[in-house]
Design goal:
The complex is a heterodimer of chains A (509) and B (345).
Chain A: H1 2-5, E1 10-19, E2 22-32, E3 37-41, H2 48-56, E4 63-68, E5 71-73, H3 78-83, E6 86-89, H4 101-105, H5 121-134, H6 150-163, E7 168-172, H7 180-195, E8 199-203, H8 208-213, E9 216-221, E10 224-230, H9 236-244, E11 262-271, E12 275-283, E13 287-292, H10 298-305, E14 313-318, E15 321-323, H11 328-334, E16 336-339, H12 343-346, H13 353-358, E17 366-367, E18 370-371, H14 373-386, H15 403-416, E19 421-425, H16 433-448, E20 452-457, H17 460-466, E21 469-474, E22 477-483, H18 489-498
Parallel strand pairs in A: 3-8, 3-9, 6-7, 7-8, 13-20, 13-21, 16-19, 19-20
Antiparallel strand pairs in A: 1-2, 1-4, 4-5, 9-10, 11-12, 11-14, 14-15, 17-18, 21-22
Helix pairs in contact in A: 9-18, 14-15, 15-16
Chain B: H1 27-48, H2 55-80, H3 88-105, H4 110-134, H5 139-158, H6 176-183, E1 185-186, E2 189-190, H7 191-209, H8 211-221, H9 223-228, H10 233-259, H11 270-280, H12 292-311, H13 316-340
Antiparallel strand pairs in B: 1-2
Helix pairs in contact in B: 1-12, 2-7, 2-8, 2-10, 2-11, 2-12, 3-4, 3-5, 3-10, 4-5, 4-10, 6-10, 7-8, 7-12, 8-10, 11-12, 11-13
Classes of the chains: A alpha/beta (509), B mainly alpha (345).
Chain lengths: 509, 345
């Protein structure tokens, strides 16, 4: 093809990056031609974001080279990236809400009149009108950023990047928050930009977007490049296989335990547009995995079950009893426990191990209405030993524990509270492999003791390995249910990425 | 940090004396700084002024420190939750004025009068807490509003004059029991200071031995985590503000007893001293950590400093400047210390 004869605009060679405990990127090569859209695929944790962050200068590579126009460049800060024409369009948009579009676009380089040194507003607005025209927006340059929708904000970010002479655009899940109409508009702008020779690296979970947009696709898994394919060779089946991998690992301890009575029954639970009419049940001794990509409503479902976000409708029964869960206090009283996505959101770092373990069960540690410190200490010591938490003493501040131990303190809280149903939202995110195994073991142990476990995750291998049943969520709905061992990762991924019950691959709506 | 002695079994967990490790690190360690500061100040003043270390002067200092320490104890509970109560000075004036007017002008029974005082204080605190939690209004704004409103109400209640007033036909004189609160002696120490010590003990006990106390720290340490752990964040905050209002009323009674009178201008600016005492005691202004022991030391330090400036004949105008500088410097130093040692054992 033509591309092989031209020089790549951007070339990455042997990029390596290690975070404490994790090798995020292992010798990754990547290249990008002018006017090309190069799709980057991979599961969560595969290394996509790390690669994007290295290019945009917010983290630095450990080794490897970055070539622009065949010459080596150093990107050690977002400023460098900007100078070399590499621009990241952030998922969480970075506009100043109380400033006008014009002020946002021209922030930091407002043109001034020579004579007075004051801002030349006429020029500002004239330049901005040009930029807005370039991204197909027909709105006033005096509109405040806070009055814009996500779609328009994103286009403005893109416009801003282009106006700063960006040659490489990094788009990270750009369609995750857009309506169908906005997606179409974005796609036509993208086509236009490519026509002007701008190159784009595009990260998304939506497989349908590959054939729609990409020239080539690169798949990462566990920090390694699995391969790069021209779009014509990249069928969805192939891509899913590359993303998920086939190796079955035994990193997932799982006990088979007898399944008992229903522990949690949820009927027609709704939360705005994020969770719609979701019904399912979890039985005692059962581990139910809920798989969903980002934006599938997974986290919202978990939070509304625990009363963190008030549901609009639906009923929740715990051990057969109808409960009206409006707050975490209600949820805990009903017998639920909750491990958060962000570990630190669940822990009070500046307090000791013992108090963190007993927050949810302090009521049972009282004597004459006062905290029985001896009893609390005994309980904490028991949990430290049982979960093998590494801490010098039970009053060590949680802040000073390792990530894995912190996670275990969060788990211990619900052991202490004797929760009958555990809701775990991404409990293994950001912890190392050893600690993950401990979490799985904990899950199994809880199931064996008769608790129902509801396990939310976006990591397919773990969901498949530890669940008795797998629920797949997409666009706020339950789109499929599989029994453990009866599904392939391709099936699950297809439903999760497709988001329609008609089968894999449909464009999200 | 002590990574040694990794605990995998019960036997290996060092048996630490519970009482000193409740909040995760030795109480002695966190109080060492404030206590050293106080001792240094005392030493310096003892050298600089022959009058400082006299029995009379020390009794005087402790009497003056009392109301501030009582206010600071309540303030501590609020600051543990990550909040702030700017209204304590005004609430103190309103509660004391209302009670004294009721007793002396309207002949209300002494004990009912004291009950009224405490109820007024607690009610003001409760209203603060209610608006902050249910109305989701920043604590700063709500208590600043209360600062103004309570002062205004105190002026209305007293008609702007010291009470009991010479211009109205009083039904009773200031009860000797209230005077005793401010001017009496218990076990050889001034009654106000004794009351302050009791208040500090009770609030310490509340903070360390009750569920509510635990919740205060949790809410201030990590609000979202507290919520996820099933802690009713609103209840905890409400409790803290109500306690702060109640203790402001106690401080008001003590001050009225000492002055043999109440007036609407009592405790003007007292909130700054209370907050300063809390912070000088090593409590984190942003919540989640601190101790009542620290507040006791901080409050004492502030009064010793004021007394010292008096003894050294510093002009009262300069005294105000000096107090402001000291308070801000302490907070600046505290912030620096926290940043410097952030993430370390």
């Amino acid at each position: 093809m033509l591309e092989t004869m031209r020089q790549p605009l951007l070339e990455l060679k042997d990029i390596k990056k290690t975070y404490p405990g994790v090798q995020a990127l292992k010798k990754v090569d990547f290249d990008l031609y002018p006017g090309e859209l190069h799709f980057l695929l991979g599961e969560n944790g595969a290394g996509k974001s790390t690669l994007m962050k290295i290019l945009s200068g917010s983290v630095q590579k450990d080794s490897g080279t970055i070539l622009l126009d065949g010459r080596e460049i150093a990107i050690t800060s977002p400023r460098d990236a900007d100078r070399h024409g590499v621009a990241m369009v952030y998922q969480e948009l970075s506009l100043f809400p109380a400033l006008s579009i014009a002020e946002n676009i021209m922030a930091g380089r407002l043109p001034r009149r020579n004579l007075t040194g004051t801002v030349d507003w006429r020029r500002v607005h004239a330049e901005c009108r040009e930029i807005l025209k370039g991204v197909g927006l027909d709105i006033s340059t005096t509109t405040l950023a806070q009055d814009l929708g996500v779609g328009a904000s994103q286009l403005i970010e893109i416009g801003k990047a282009i106006s700063r002479k960006a040659r490489v655009l990094l788009l990270d899940e750009p369609t995750s928050a857009l309506s169908v109409h906005e997606v179409e508009r974005l796609f036509s702008i993208i086509a236009d930009l490519l026509g002007r020779g701008i190159a784009i690296i595009y990260v998304s979970h939506k497989l349908a977007e590959v054939s729609r947009l990409a020239h080539r696709v690169t798949v990462l898994r566990d920090g390694e490049k699995v391969g790069t394919l021209p779009v014509n060779d990249a069928s969805e089946a192939t891509l899913i296989r590359m993303m998920v991998g086939r190796e079955v690992t035994d990193r997932y301890p799982k006990e088979i335990v007898p399944i008992g009575k229903p522990a949690l029954e949820v009927e027609k639970l709704s939360l705005g547009r994020r969770v719609r009419n979701v019904s399912f049940s979890v039985r005692e001794g059962e581990v139910v995995g809920v798989f969903g990509l980002r934006g599938s409503g997974r986290t919202s479902l978990a939070r509304s079950l625990f009363g963190l976000e008030p549901r609009d409708g639906g009923t929740i029964r715990v051990q057969g009893r109808l409960t009206d869960i409006r707050s975490p206090v209600d949820a805990i009283r009903a017998g639920l426990g909750y491990i958060t996505e962000e570990r630190k959101l669940g822990l009070v770092l500046r307090m000791g191990v013992a108090p963190n373990m007993t927050f949810a069960s302090l009521g049972s540690m009282l004597r004459y209405g006062l905290i029985d410190h001896a009893k609390e200490r005994q309980a904490a010591l028991g949990l430290v030993e049982r979960l093998r938490i590494v801490t010098p003493h039970v009053h060590q501040l949680v802040e000073f524990l390792s990530g894995g131990s912190q996670q275990k303190v969060a788990l211990a809280r619900w052991l202490c509270a004797r929760a009958r149903v555990l809701i775990m939202d991404e409990p293994t995110r950001g912890i190392d492999v050893g600690a993950k195994v401990e979490v799985y073991r904990f899950l199994s142990e809880q199931a064996r003791e008769g608790a129902g476990v509801l396990f939310f995750s976006s990591e397919l291998p773990e969901v498949m390995s530890i669940s008795d049943r797998i629920l797949v969520m997409a666009q706020g709905e339950l789109v499929a249910t599989f029994n453990g061992g009866e599904s392939t990762s391709d099936d699950i991924m297809a439903y999760a990425a497709g988001g329609s019950t008609n089968g894999p691959g449909g464009i999200s709506s | 940090m002590s990574k040694s002695g990794l605990a995998t079994g019960t036997g290996q967990v060092p048996a630490t004396p519970m009482a000193y490790r409740r909040q995760g690190r030795s109480v002695f360690a966190t109080l060492a700084g404030p206590a050293t500061g106080l001792l240094l100040l005392i030493t310096m003043l003892a050298i600089a002024s022959p009058h400082f270390l006299t029995r009379l002067n020390l009794l005087n200092v402790s009497r003056q420190a009392a109301t501030n320490i009582i206010l600071a104890a309540g303030q501590s509970l609020v600051i543990f939750t990550g909040g702030i109560d700017l209204s304590v000075g005004s609430v103190m004036a309103l509660a004391a004025s209302t009670a004294v007017v009721a007793i002396t002008h309207h002949g209300l029974h002494l004990w009912l009068g004291i009950l009224v005082c405490l109820l007024v204080g607690a009610a003001c605190g409760f209203v603060n807490g209610l608006i902050i939690t249910k109305g989701k209004v920043p604590d700063f704004i709500v208590t600043l509003g209360m600062l103004s409103a309570a002062r205004g109400l105190a002026l209305l209640v007293t008609d702007g004059m010291p009470v009991p007033s010479h211009y109205v036909a009083v039904r009773a004189y200031m009860p000797r029991q209230i005077i005793a609160l401010g001017a009496g002696e218990v076990l050889g120490i001034p009654a106000p200071f004794f009351i302050a010590l009791v208040v500090v003990f009770l609030t310490w006990f509340l903070s360390q031995h009750t569920r509510t106390g635990r919740h205060l720290y949790a809410v201030g340490g990590n609000r979202e985590a507290a919520r996820v752990s099933g802690i009713n964040v609103d209840h905890a905050k409400l409790a803290a503000y109500t306690a702060s209002g109640l203790l402001a009323a106690v401080a008001g009674l003590v001050l009225a007893g000492r002055l043999n009178s109440a007036n609407a201008h009592m405790g003007t600016g007292a909130e700054l001293n209370a907050i300063a005492s809390v912070v000088m005691g090593g409590t984190n202004l942003f919540g989640g950590e601190g101790s009542l022991g620290g507040t006791l030391i901080g409050g004492t330090t502030l009064s010793v400093l004021a007394n010292g400036l008096n003894l050294l004949a510093v002009s009262p105008f300069w005294q105000q400047v000096a107090m402001g500088l000291v308070v801000v410097s302490v907070v600046v130093f505290d912030q620096w210390r926290r940043r410097r040692f952030a993430g370390r054992g």
